[in-house]
Amino acid sequence: MATGRNEPVTPESPGTVEVKNAYFNSIYEKFDKNHNGTLEEEELREMLKHDGKIQDMIVQSIFIDSDKNNDGHISHDEFIAMVQNEKFRDKFDKYINVYIKHVLPRRRKRGKYADANYEEQYKCWPLPFGMVLISILQITCFVADQYTEKGQESISSHLIYDPTKRLEMWRYLTYMFVHIGVEHLTVNLCVQLLLGIPLEMVHKWWRVVLVYLAGVLAGSLCSSVTDPDVNLAGGSGGVYAILTAHIATILMNWREMSFPCIQLFIYLTVIVGDLAMSIYQRCWLRRSNGVGYVAHLAGALAGVLVGIWVLKNFRPTKKETYLWWVAVFTFSVLMGAMIVLNFVYDTWLRK
């Protein structure tokens, strides 16, 4: 979109078919009020009367001409054909311009592409419930533990990761439901909800859950071999994976994001600062507080690799395709090695 304040804004401004279609898709989704995937005549009327200067009979005429299969609705394909129809082109350009000016954010143009195409991908449907569901399960487990009577085995005792019980496979993942104290739980919940839900709104919930679980699994596998005296509790491996997944999606969608340099700097600062403080406390101050720092580091690495692998890349380049394969190969090799080392640990490495 043009950057000058007084320049006209048209669907052609960005100069690319992809961006123009993104405009039309945004309009279609906004005015599909009942989210049934089609436009009713009333919804079309609301769209075209956005500035109050079109007659009802014109709306009805456009609707009838555009409803090719006469089912009383305008499908997405019919809508695209309608806005590209020479008969209605001038009229739609005029009224869609009003929408673009007042609803869509202004963009900076870099070369033939426009900024902020990534931000337009945010959607509330399907519902981003992945991180919410995991958080509810974590809260439920924590509350249940608080009401466990003395002398009874708590739920967490069957879920926490204990390296001496490495053959109880479920523990490699279920330790993410156990938290040591309210502060531990609260911090993890805040980070995974505040950062996980925005990722789900762009990339769909199941992709983000895969990233989270990869971080949890990588954390337990690596910690079990390299830091075998530490039991693991909490979803910090998954939380770090969510943090670094944002880095992955910035790298893969650099041209489509607003201010990618600033976003990348913020996430790197948070991650590097926290890891540096953890290493300093563990190695220099000799504070052994039972925190699985290796799990944090492994989760962070998994978040980048799996994020590149499973999160969406809206305009892949040849270099990014190579990067995708490197991420798949690296993650597969590292995880395979950790799985093997865990199986042979008691019979070989511990000697």
TrEMBL record:
InterPro entries, alphabetized: EF-hand-dom_pair, EF_Hand_1_Ca_BS, EF_hand_dom, Peptidase_S54_rhomboid_dom, Peptidase_S54_rhomboid_met, Rhomboid-like_sf, Rhomboid_IM_Serine_Proteases
Residue ranges of every copy of the EF-hand domain listed in the record: 19-54, 59-89
Membrane spanning stretches: 172-197, 209-226, 232-252, 264-281, 293-311, 323-345
Active site location: 236 (nucleophile), 296
Localization of this protein: Membrane
GO MF annotation, one: serine-type endopeptidase activity
Protein keywords: Calcium, Membrane, Transmembrane, Transmembrane helix
GO CC entries: membrane
Chief place where the protein resides: membrane
Topology versus the membrane: Multi-pass membrane protein
Domain of life where this protein originates: Eukaryota
Family annotation (Gene3D superfamilies): EF-hand, Rhomboid-like
Pfam families: EF-hand_7 (PF13499), Rhomboid (PF01694)
Homology family: Belongs to the peptidase S54 family.
Name of the molecule in the record: EF-hand domain-containing protein
Annotated source species: Acanthoscelides obtectus (Bean weevil)
